Amino acid sequence: MSTAGVAITARGISVRGPLGPVFSNVDAEIRPGELATVTGPSGTGRTALLLTLSGRLRPITGTIEVDGRSLPKGAKRARTLIAPARLRPGFELEGRWRVREAVRERRITTKVDHDDISDAFDLVGIDPEPEAVIDSLHPGERLLLAVALGMAALPAGLLVDDVELGLPEAARTRVWAALEAIADAGTTVLASNTDPPRFAAGPVIRLPGPNGETPHRAGGTAPETALLPGQEPNTVEFDAETTRTPREDAITEPHTFGTEVLSPDPAQLALFEPPAPAVPPEPDTAETDSTDSGTNETSPEAEPTDSDSEDDGDPR
């Protein structure tokens, strides 16, 4: 499985968004079949740079050439040559689908066949269960599934955003190895990550942080690649189904505060409103003394009383 990669050259490009500059004065020189990595702290415009280099976002300054053609005139061709495997947010696999449904959708939209999909799976080293729900896959296998589906049509370039996000160490190594194998097969890979890979890959485009700092590889997990407490995968084996064990101090599911989803369980009502005061039972009228005036009067204690005290809340 091989293809001819695409060359990308950028000089002094800048992008500005509604809140100001996204990145400024970026140069890039990427040859066909290289694994290039865009690095920088969160919020430095890594995803925006991937979009810009692939003809999906127009810079306000500088020049870009993709496959020898200048952008924006050649932007449509650039988008055809460089396919997104994962761009966050906006281009990700549908987590509720099964693997076979994602494969079928890709075969329809890109006109690839079963052999193309199989070759792409072999290239990145996965063999997912067709009936597995995508969200149930290990994060590393989920990313490699997206990469394989992107590679099935043999694009000249491939975009992979947030390579290490949410991955344990073993999975990161495997994903980078798969991206390197894709580059070795001829496809130009544009990846983004907080830090550059730990092996000698292709060019690294460093985007400075707010204070001018540049990413560097240190021990442990960079802040952007760490999961929240209680959300770490239980295993790094790709073939095992991943579950998340909730902790007492962690919230693993979003909470909805609409009244329609509150539980009717009486034990939970005290969480939202004070319990209603107990009302004494009404006296049995069948045993009322015959000397009464004919009306059934109840004890004053049995009548509910209104209160405007601070302890009982607002007056009714």
UniProtKB/TrEMBL annotation:
Can you supply a Gene Ontology BP term from the record? Answer: response to antibiotic
Which key words tag this protein in UniProt?
Antibiotic resistance, ATP-binding, Nucleotide-binding, Transport
Q: Does the keyword Cytoplasm apply?
A: no
* Annotated spans, Disordered: 192-316
Q: Does the keyword Nucleotide-binding apply?
A: yes
Q: Which residues form the ABC transporter domain?
A: 8-238
Q: Which family does it belong to?
A: Belongs to the ABC transporter superfamily.
Protein name, per record = ABC transporter
- Give the record's membrane topology: Peripheral membrane protein
User: GO: which molecular function terms?
Assistant: ATP binding; ATP hydrolysis activity
SMART domains in alphabetical order: AAA
Which Pfam families does the protein's record reference? Answer: ABC_tran (PF00005)
Composition bias type Acidic residues, residue spans: 303-316
The record's listing under InterPro entries reads: AAA+_ATPase, ABC_transporter-like_ATP-bd, ABC_transporter_ATP-binding, P-loop_NTPase
Name the source organism.
Actinopolyspora righensis
A single GO cellular-component term from the record reads:
plasma membrane
Q: Where in or outside the cell?
A: Cell membrane
Task: List membrane-spanning regions.
Answer: none
Q: Where is the composition biased (Basic and acidic residues)?
A: 241-252
Residue ranges with Pro residues bias: 274-283
